[in-house]
Amino acid sequence: MSWQRIKPLLLHSWYHATHSKETQIDLVWFTLIQFLIFGLIAKVISAGQPEMGVVLILGFLLWEIVRIGQYSVTVSMLWEVWSKSFNSLFIAPLTMTEWIVSQMIAAAVKTFLVIGSLAVLGHFLFHFSLLQLGIALPLYVLVLIGFAYASGIFITGLIIRYGTNIQSFAWGLIYVFQPISAVFYPVQALPAEIRWTSYISPITYVMESARHQFATSTILWNYVVISIVMCALYLVGAWVFMQEMYKRARRTGEFARLGD
Predict the structure, then answer these.
(1) What residues does each domain of the chain span?
(2) pLDDT digits (tens, 9 = 90+) for 77-105
């Protein structure tokens, strides 16, 4: 893996993000509008139940780390496929690993800029601060962005293998995890029959620990450790899957036809 080949890809991502109105609307405009809506709902709820307002804003900001990170990794590839330029990138001595790593770095930057801006806005408009999570905040962010990477890499593997027939997975598949990951409510709110599904998502442990921390000022360190281990397993599994799909697509010629 060469940093000299990754740098031009990062520059390419920067130019795309700063000139693509579609990307700006998806990552900034929609996120901002939804944040304002959630914040105003939280403000109304807080009049009677202050803790519920905090839960809504907290859940929204932490979930958006996952959504924006995954979206950035996956849709960046689709933009290249749609413009029929993805295959041409690999005429140069570029590896799939270098491509994925560059998109992971770009996704982290985009996520930091968007969520950081919303956190500052939330502080002034709704008197909410993510910094209340203290030393646990970097660990929560690490798990959530790691899971975003895992999801993005997995979906990239699917697109490499099956093409644009499943391109809607790039922005829709991640939402399978939202209802089961206790984003806006505790795990106990789920029906007992499907409650077990929440524990296969590392997001659940982050959300539960973050809510507990806001309520009691104590960190559920066992949940933090579980989420980190699970996230690492998801990352390894997604990486192995993507590499296998890439090799198979190269053997069958599907990779060469991607975007045709």
Answers:
(1) 3-257
(2) 888 888 777 777 777 788 888 989 999 99
Place of tokens 């202050």: 50
Q: Which two tokens stand for residue 113?
A: 């800029």
Burial of 52 (0-12, 13-18, 19+ CB in 10 A): middle
Measured CA to CA, the distance from residue 57 to residue 44 in angstroms comes to 12
Count CA within 13 A, CB hemisphere, residue 23. Answer: 22
CA proximity to 86, closest of 7, 171, 12 = 12
Amino acid identity of residue 29, one-letter, is: W
At 118, list the tokens. 């919303």
Tell me how far apart the alpha carbons of residues 234 and 154 are, in angstroms, rounded to a whole number. Answer: 9
Round to whole Å and give the CA distance between 233 and 230: 5
Q: Tell me: the pLDDT tens digits for 142-158?
A: 999 999 999 999 999 99
Instruction: Write b or e for each residue in 66-105: b if 16 or more Cβ atoms lie within 10 A of its Cβ, otherwise e.
Output: bbbbbbbbbbbbbebbeeeebeeeeeeebebebbbbbbbb
pTM: 0.92
